[in-house]
Specification:
With 284 residues, the chain is of the alpha+beta class. The protein contains five helices and 15 strands. The protein folds into two domains: 104 residues, no CATH class; 138 residues, Immunoglobulin-like.
Length: 284
C-alpha cells in the first residue's frame, strides 16, 4: 500500500510539473490596420488585407522589428503609383511566421472615402502566444541582393554577412506560381556547405561556375501584368538542421516555430521581376 501511495504521489507531481511546463501564456494586444484602394479592389478584399495588417501590427508590438520590418520593396506598379493588391497581400502574410495568434476578438471594420479612393480600417484585439524565449540580439545576419528589380535573364547574387558563425538555409517563395509552396535554394546538390562565419556570396565563389539564380518571366502571366513579387527567406540557426527540398507554407511556418527564438534568425527579402521594357532602379 505504501509503495502504491508513493508511486501515486510521484505520478501526481510529474503530471503537475508537465502541465506547468506545457502552459501556453498569451497576451491581449489592441491594434489597427488600414488599406487604401481604388475601384479595381473590392471592399471585401481590401478589408481582408487591412485585417492582416492589424494582426501584423499586433504581432510587432510583441516581437518587435523581427515582425514589423518588412522586405525592402515596394508593391507599386513600376510605371504607375497604384499599389498592387496581390503583392501587398503576399508581403503582409509573412508576419505570421514568427508569431502565433490564438484568437481575435473585438473585430471592427469601417470603410471611408479618401480623395477619390477608399480606405478600410480594421481594429481588433489579438490574443498572442508569448514565447518562452527571446531572440538573441547578437545572433543576426545581413542579407543583400544585387538588385531590387530584375528583368528576365538577369542573375541574382546573394550576399550574407553574419555576426557570428551560423548554419544557413535560403528558400524561395514565388506566390504567383504557387502560393502554398516554399522551395529550398541553398544548400543544394552543387553547393552543400551550409556553415558560414564571415561575409559570403551565394552561389559561393568555388561553385559560381556550376550554377546561378537566373530570373525567368512566366509566359502564363497575363499580358497586362507588368511586374510580379518574389521573396527570399534566409534562415540562420545555431545548430545544423536537415531541411527538405520544399515545404507547404503552413508546414514551413511550423518548422520555424519548432526552433527556439534564441537559436534562429529569419530574414525576409522581397524583390520584383518585371517585363524587359519596364525596369527602373536598382540596389547598390
Amino acid at each position: 500500500m505504501k509503495v502504491f501511495l508513493k508511486n501515486f504521489i510521484l505520478l501526481i507531481i510529474t503530471f503537475s510539473l508537465t502541465s506547468i511546463l506545457n502552459t501556453v501564456y498569451a497576451e491581449s494586444v489592441d491594434a489597427t490596420g488600414e488599406y487604401l484602394y481604388g475601384p479595381e479592389t473590392s471592399d471585401a478584399d481590401a478589408c481582408r488585407l487591412a485585417e492582416i495588417r492589424a494582426k501584423s501590427n499586433a504581432l510587432s508590438k510583441i516581437f518587435g522589428e523581427s515582425i514589423s520590418m518588412e522586405e525592402r520593396m515596394s508593391c507599386r506598379e513600376v510605371r504607375d503609383a497604384r499599389s498592387d493588391f496581390g503583392c501587398e497581400l503576399n508581403r503582409v502574410s509573412w508576419t505570421s511566421i514568427e508569431g502565433d495568434i490564438r484568437s481575435v476578438t473585438n473585430l471592427h471594420k469601417v470603410t471611408e472615402s479618401r480623395l477619390g479612393e477608399k480606405a478600410c480600417i480594421v481594429s481588433l484585439t489579438a490574443d498572442i502566444v508569448i514565447p518562452d524565449r527571446k531572440p538573441d540580439s547578437n545572433f543576426d545576419v545581413k542579407v543583400s541582393i544585387n538588385e531590387r528589380i530584375y528583368r528576365a535573364g538577369e542573375v541574382m547574387n546573394i550576399v550574407l554577412e553574419p555576426t557570428v558563425g551560423m548554419y544557413i538555409a535560403i528558400f524561395s517563395w514565388v506566390p504567383y506560381q504557387d502560393v502554398d509552396t516554399i522551395v529550398r535554394m541553398y544548400p543544394n546538390r552543387m553547393d552543400k556547405h551550409s556553415h558560414i562565419s564571415k561575409k559570403i556570396n551565394i552561389p559561393t565563389d568555388k561553385k559560381l561556375s556550376d550554377y546561378n539564380f537566373t530570373m525567368t518571366w512566366s509566359k502564363s502571366l497575363p499580358l497586362n501584368k507588368t511586374f510580379v513579387d518574389e521573396y527570399l527567406i534566409v534562415v540562420g540557426t545555431k545548430k545544423p538542421l536537415k531541411w527538405l527540398s520544399s515545404y507547404q507554407l503552413d508546414d514551413f511556418k511550423v518548422k520555424l516555430r519548432e526552433i527556439p527564438l534564441d537559436e534562429r534568425r529569419v530574414v525576409k527579402q522581397g524583390y520584383q521581376l518585371v517585363r524587359s521594357s519596364d525596369k527602373v532602379g536598382s540596389i547598390q
